[in-house]
């Protein structure tokens, strides 16, 4: 999938998640998706192509980076807890949707229970 399609799929998935909001930064090259004010997805254009940056469980992030050449440490983020996904031949639509949903669930799981729009342990494991 190309980089524009990657961002379109990730953005479409993100806006379908309960309580998710898109924030356009002062810099027009950044789109930030949040749930209850906490970031779970960023999109920007790196020097060569558009990318998606997502929160990931550290163990899962390491495994993803090993398995997929188009997944690298989080650009301008904590390299252990965030991943960058680039367009290319190793990621598909299903994986992108799963990664966005997993990032969302991780962030929701860190919110106080009273602020959670969903139960992160049961929400949409079939993304």
UniProtKB/TrEMBL annotation:
User: What GO molecular function terms would the record report?
Assistant: DNA binding
Keyword flag DNA-binding? yes
Highest taxon of source: Bacteria
InterPro entries associated with the record: YjbR, YjbR-like_sf, YjbR/MT2646/Rv2570-like
The record's keywords, sorted A to Z, are: DNA-binding
List where the protein spans the membrane.
none
One Pfam family here? YjbR
The name on file for this protein is MmcQ/YjbR family DNA-binding protein
Q: Which organism is it from?
A: Kribbella turkmenica
């Amino acid at each position: 999938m190309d980089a524009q399609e990657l961002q379109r799929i990730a953005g479409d998935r993100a806006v379908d998640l309960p309580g998710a909001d898109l924030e356009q930064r002062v810099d027009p090259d950044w789109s930030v998706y949040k749930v209850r004010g906490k970031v779970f997805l960023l999109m920007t254009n790196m020097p060569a192509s558009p990318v998606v940056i997502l929160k990931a469980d550290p163990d899962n992030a390491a495994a993803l980076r090993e398995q997929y050449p188009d997944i690298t440490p989080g650009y301008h983020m904590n390299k252990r807890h965030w991943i960058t996904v680039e367009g290319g031949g190793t990621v598909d639509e299903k994986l992108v949707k799963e990664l966005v949903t997993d990032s969302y669930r991780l962030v929701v799981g860190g919110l106080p229970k009273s602020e959670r729009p969903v139960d992160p342990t049961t929400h949409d494991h079939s993304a």
